[in-house]
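Example for tutorial group B:
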């Protein structure tokens, strides 16, 4: 049966030991307080090699192995309590001193804590020294000397204790988050390499091309794929574009024969195809050029095909997002243009086809984007504009209901009355009577 790995044993997978050592050393130098990293059971994992020594009091307690065991139990209990709530935990150790535990979590699982303290939060009174005698009972120590060293312990305020605990917690867990992010990126690169490997194997099994015409046929194949990829980018179809890009990257890998410089050149050429399609799809040229320049600088030093492939896929996702944003902006402009055409021509006998022709779109496409942007159909908007104009005309005694209907493009006054009542809750005549 495989032995279960403790979370604390995974700490160094995310953050190097020397990083923790630097953290503890810097903290101790800046605050004057002792700090150490312990595992779930309270056992010391790291104590700064160039740090602050234990207080004389703690050195005496640790001179007995039982004292060390009691300290470990105190640290383990404090770390567990801190992990329950995900906040620093301030506590009194078995010997009566103030300390605090800053929990370290891996995917919300407790993996140890940083312990700091060996201080008092108040001036030692006689009763405290009497407590010390009780707390160290059973240890092979000089009680008189223990009390003497207890009276020499540093006293710091509650605010300073809380601030030091918060500082340790924030810094330690930020380091863990950074380490987990780096590990996740490595995992993504490995997955990308695995995906490319699977596609490569699949293509090898399916390869039927005749060797004599391989170069020419593969050239035509690549060109066809480039055209398909460009079309997908222009239409902001990410899933299909990403799939095509994977196939093309495999083609490049097969033709590179481990020549990394040739591979990088072909990949950048592919990026140019993608970026040109993005600009054609509406992306801002200056933004595209800036991103391309950054990728080119990255390629200069890159030497891992998996990382290069993952990076260009991220670029593809960015370009397609820009195309989508540009498309939404363009659609809004077309909808506004259609609405303006309606407001200028509502008195005419216009329909959806007339409006679509005015903005050079198909009726079905215009209907779809108009409803999405305006929250109503195109014909509902036309009716709304006509009704608002009708309300203005009905307030003028010069016009009767039939004249108003004719001016608004209604052939049938009865239909006009039906539309008006549905919108306003009263007939045109009733509205007129109230308005005059």
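The residue assignment follows.
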């Amino acid at each position: 049966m495989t032995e279960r790995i403790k979370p604390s044993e995974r700490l160094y997978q995310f953050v190097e030991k020397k990083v923790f050592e630097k953290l503890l050393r810097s903290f101790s130098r800046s605050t004057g307080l002792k700090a150490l990293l312990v595992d779930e059971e309270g056992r010391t994992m790291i104590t700064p090699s160039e740090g602050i020594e234990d207080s004389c009091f703690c050195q005496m307690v640790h001179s007995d192995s039982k004292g060390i065991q009691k300290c470990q139990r105190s640290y383990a209990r404090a770390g567990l309590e801190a992990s329950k709530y995900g906040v620093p935990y301030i506590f009194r150790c078995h010997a009566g001193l103030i300390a605090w535990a800053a929990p370290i979590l891996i995917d919300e699982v407790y993996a140890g804590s940083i312990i700091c303290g060996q201080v008092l939060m108040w001036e030692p009174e006689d009763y405290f020294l009497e407590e010390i005698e009780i707390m160290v009972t059973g240890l092979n120590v000089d009680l008189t000397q223990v009390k003497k060293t207890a009276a020499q312990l540093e006293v710091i305020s509650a605010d300073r204790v809380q601030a030091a605990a918060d500082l340790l917690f924030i810094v330690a867990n930020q380091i863990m988050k950074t380490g987990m992010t780096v590990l996740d990126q490595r995992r993504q690169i490995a997955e990308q390499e695995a995906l490319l490997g699977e596609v490569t194997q699949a293509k090898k099994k399916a390869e039927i091309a005749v060797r004599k015409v391989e170069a020419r046929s593969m050239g035509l194949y690549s060109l066809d794929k480039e055209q398909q990829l460009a079309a997908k980018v222009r239409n902001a179809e990410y899933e299909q574009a990403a799939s095509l890009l994977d196939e093309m990257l495999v083609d490049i890998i097969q033709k590179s024969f481990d020549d990394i410089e040739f591979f990088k050149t072909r990949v950048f050429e592919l990026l140019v195809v993608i970026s040109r399609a993005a600009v054609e799809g509406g992306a801002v040229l200056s933004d595209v050029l800036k991103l391309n320049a950054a990728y080119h600088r990255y390629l200069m030093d890159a030497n891992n095909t998996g990382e290069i492939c993952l990076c260009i896929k991220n670029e593809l996702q960015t370009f397609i997002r820009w195309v989508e944003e540009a498309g939404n902006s363009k659609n809004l402009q077309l909808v506004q243009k259609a609405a303006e055409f309606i407001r200028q021509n509502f008195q005419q006998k216009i329909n959806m086809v007339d409006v679509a022709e005015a903005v050079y779109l198909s009726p079905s496409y215009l209907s779809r984007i108009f409803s999405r942007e305006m929250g109503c159909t195109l014909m509902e908007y036309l009716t709304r504009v006509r009704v608002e104009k009708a309300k203005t005309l009905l307030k003028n005694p010069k016009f009767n209901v039939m004249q108003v209907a004719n001016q608004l493009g209604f052939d049938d006054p009865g239909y006009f009355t039906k539309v008006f009542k549905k919108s306003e809750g009263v007939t045109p005549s009733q509205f007129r009577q109230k308005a005059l």
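Residues 158-206 form the longest helix (49 residues). Compare this with the pattern of hydrophobic and polar residues in the output above.
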